[in-house]
From TrEMBL:
GO molecular function: 3-oxoacyl-[acyl-carrier-protein] synthase activity
Domain Ketosynthase family 3 (KS3) residue range list: 2-419
Family the UniProt entry places it in: Belongs to the thiolase-like superfamily. Beta-ketoacyl-ACP synthases family.
GO annotations of cellular component type: cytosol
Catalysed reactions listed for this entry: (9Z)-hexadecenoyl-[ACP] + malonyl-[ACP] + H(+) = 3-oxo-(11Z)-octadecenoyl-[ACP] + holo-[ACP] + CO2; a fatty acyl-[ACP] + malonyl-[ACP] + H(+) = a 3-oxoacyl-[ACP] + holo-[ACP] + CO2
Biological process according to GO: fatty acid biosynthetic process
Pathway, per record: Lipid metabolism; fatty acid biosynthesis
SUPFAM superfamilies: Thiolase-like
Protein name: 3-oxoacyl-[acyl-carrier-protein] synthase 2
NCBIfam families per the UniProt record, alphabetical: fabF, PRK07314.1
Highest taxon of source: Bacteria
Active site residues according to the UniProt entry: 171 (for beta-ketoacyl synthase activity)
Amino acid sequence: MKTRVVVTGMGVISPIGNSVEEFKNSLKAGKSGVGKIESFDTTDFDVKIAGEIKEFNPTDWIDKKDARKMARFTQFAVAAADQALVQAGLIEKKEGERPQVKSDPERTGIVLGNGIGGFEVITESFKKLFDAGPKRMLPLTVPLMIGNEAAGNISMIYGTKGPALTQVTACASGTDAIGEALDLIRAGRADVVITGGTEATIVPFAVGGFQMLKALSAKRNDEPEKASRPFDADRDGFVLGEGAGVLVIESEEHAKKRGAKILAELAGYGVSADAYHITSPEPSGEGGGRAIQLALKDAGIKPEDVQYYNAHGTSTEINDPTETKMIKYAFGDHAYKLKVSSTKSMTGHCIAGGGGIEAIACILAINEGFYPPTINLDNPDPECDLDYVPNKAQEGVIDVAASGSLGFGGHNGVVVFRKYT
């Protein structure tokens, strides 16, 4: 019999809120976090908009000395992890002290998803290298930029000594990290795992690179809040976002023994590869659909028992109709009874951070009894003919929610959450 795994803490840094409460309220209100890029001069760019984090002060969660030694993606991850650990009751904050986890440190692990690492560090160091030579590069270039440093810093700050791993499957990284964390606990390698995803890619190099792929929305620079429009016939690309979503998960036995409040059950995980194309999903939807089926099978849940599916929903020409096929492939006739939405319509595409952020959206949907909307869905694409909860959140009883993420390279990951009983 599989070990039951539950969620006891959540933390989020996102374009629509830097706490779970702010994030929840924004989801319910259908608030867009997309605006004009303020972090760099976009004069030479066709794309001038993104879902940037607003009013983020890392020292609200992190010691000032520690924060200076972290890239932005790591700061996001530590801030979200801190929130999640506080909610889970696994740390106590004391002035001037690093909070140590109350669980057995050797049985407490970390699995975080990250796609690209410290992009702003890479950009700055390359500039110094080319302009002034290697001796002017940032001394901490390497430890700041590499993707595993988010997990490493969380381990050092909170004193966890179990596995500290980083999952890299492009835009599926956050979801795959949660799935791998589930497996760690089921395998008996950990009692508690801090998991989710983090990303900070709103820098000239990343925006320029995605722009050259023709992947980003470039038609709505003057109305940025309308640019991310998944499943809409007038969509013209995704909007880059940033942020982190982090969960604390643990075995049911461990959570109950310490009297933790259980937020949801993490019931299943499915993963597959398309073996098709480096940037495009397999056109029939079989690959992603199979990941959904595997996740439901792993959870022991029938397709008709799922009420809500948080779609990858990027707002690109290719993704949205293909993902619609994936959902139909996995759910059959129930696909038309299912509520499907893309919260990327509000946050933008937070790359590896998306999987963690969207997992939190699913848990909030279950606990708060609402379906997050797909905003800007004004002119539905005829090929996208499911119920995408257009423009306004809807009330409803949700017992089971699933979240899917698709990554360049054909990576498909799906996690399933169930109301805890």
